[in-house]
Amino acid sequence: MVAALFELSSQWLSKALGFDVVIAKSTRIGTGQIGEVYRVELEYGTKTRAGPASVVAKMASLDADCKSFGVNSGLYEREVRFYKEIAPLLTTGPIATVYRVDRDEVSGEFVILMSDNAGRVGCDISGATLEEARLAMSELGRLHGLILNHVSLKKHGWMKRTKAWSAAEQMLEYWDRFKERYGDRMRPEHRDICQKFIDSFDAYHAALDATSAPTGLVHGDYRLDNILFGHSGGLPLTLVDWQTCYWGPILHDPSYFLGLAITPEFRREHGEELLKIYHEALSVSSPFPISIHECKAGVQMHSFTGMRQAITAASLVERTTRGDDLFLTMFERSCEHVADTKALEVLPPPVPVPHLEPEALDEKMHPFSDHPLHNESWYFDVVDAEQEVGVWVRLGVIPNQSGSWYHALICGPKIPTVGVIDFEAPHPGEDLIVHGAEYTATHKAEVPLKEYRITVKGKGVAFDEPATILQGGSGRPVDVQMDLLFETDGHPYKWRRATRYEIPCKVTGTFSWDDHTFTFTKARGQRDHSWGPRDWWSADWVWTAFHFDDGTHSHLVHAKARGGDYPHLGVGYVQREGEPLIEMTDVKAAAEMAANGLGISTTITMAPLPLTFYVKPTGHAPLCLMAKDGRVAKFPRSWATITTNDGRKGVGWLEWNINE
């Protein structure tokens, strides 16, 4: 099995080609990022007649991330199956002759050995000449006619998409990355066009799936970078990179080419002629008539696909200077294509997607993975602004570490920060009872998703200066007792991008230490539950849960991975009393921190709502998170008062995770 360039040996090539290869010289060609492509020049011995002077070998990417994407997304398998099963049916099509196809099911490594047509590779950035464009559209029409005659979905079911085009929330994440990376190079009108497309993403693809337009095998990425223009004696055009082929509306391909492979000015002058060339070539061999009007409608409807491809590819492949130029070119031309075809007029309106809600069984402990940082956490918090006090509690079960985390803390500007801090708590069972060395804590969903009770009783510590906790200082011993009931007061909200849910609550109960007791009666609070691998030392974030005087609840998170070319993640909701919950498409938080590590202020903006929250931390109950490998994350957590740009006031908790 060929797994890397150095294994394209003369011995392997002799066996693959059936000729006596004695010398093989390989040179990387092409600009693809998901796979590696090499031209292999050959010399032969005397045992057999001479074979081709050179061949082309395509293999998995040497970049680990790109290879992982190629394997997990099924791109490698799809291209291998195309050359094994479909290419032999299209012997007169613009497809290279295939000598050998091998794929290792376990590792995902593969090799496709094919004829070298020694053609000139097109360049998407510069765009096609008129001669190239005419040939490309003519060969595409002829190819689609061959496919409609000779390829059957019934015999090759793998060609049908088994997944949706892309989850809308995933596409929204890609769009956020694209805007963050290229925002200063994007024209405002292009941003607006794409935002309309993103907003209607699900409705648009539902319309495509329901279309009655002619369907067949779609190449999926028909542009110049994937086309070889031949020389005399060979194929006039060879189409490569069949990783994205699928069974669907064939008019995707001509629209995609017209939108990406030629400049907008060129398309406006020659686009109608080029579409007629495609239609004429298709009509010669298609087994059923397809009108030019159908072609024009298909081109209009599919003009959005170029921007989808540009945005997706920019997020998934290794970033390069040429890649940046290519993706921006694709994006800009696609937006101009949409504008010229008036495609926004046929774009279905957005369909409101109901927010996700947890199930009753989600309240229980979930199965553990073997990830060393697998974690299942239950968080609870409450604020009573009149008493100027707040409480937060966390049970964090970390089964693959020596101990779990348990914290229960009360704080305010007029009291010390008091409670239990234990980073080596005994792992609880499914009853979620923690039997610490000097305390016992219980956690029980008395009515799943509606009522949850937590208690703690035992020894704790008190800190007159909460920043001492961040600095690793010690507190004085105290007796602690807590009994709080959390009653749901709004819509439970399940994240789309992680295994986690949040529930706004009214909280009743007591928290005491020594001879001090605070009583809460229907005070405003929040609880959440998350499970899965959680690495606190790989990202910074601001988490918030706020509750306003008019009955509005909000939960907003701004997170940023440390290192790499990744934008921030912004998620959450705003739910007004008596109105549907509104999910946020973006959240940004800007924090001011004191020299001692505690928060001074935080400003939060969001989309699609034009709201700004001005947050003033009031009570502090921070932690310092120490990883087993020595990494440190400061975790200042505070309850705060909040005012908004539209004059509302509220309270709630927020946390900053700050890696050193």
Automatic annotation (TrEMBL):
| Residue ranges annotated for the CHK kinase-like domain, each copy included | 111-288
The source's domain of life comes to: Eukaryota
Identify this protein by name: CHK kinase-like domain-containing protein
Give the source species: Cladophialophora psammophila CBS 110553
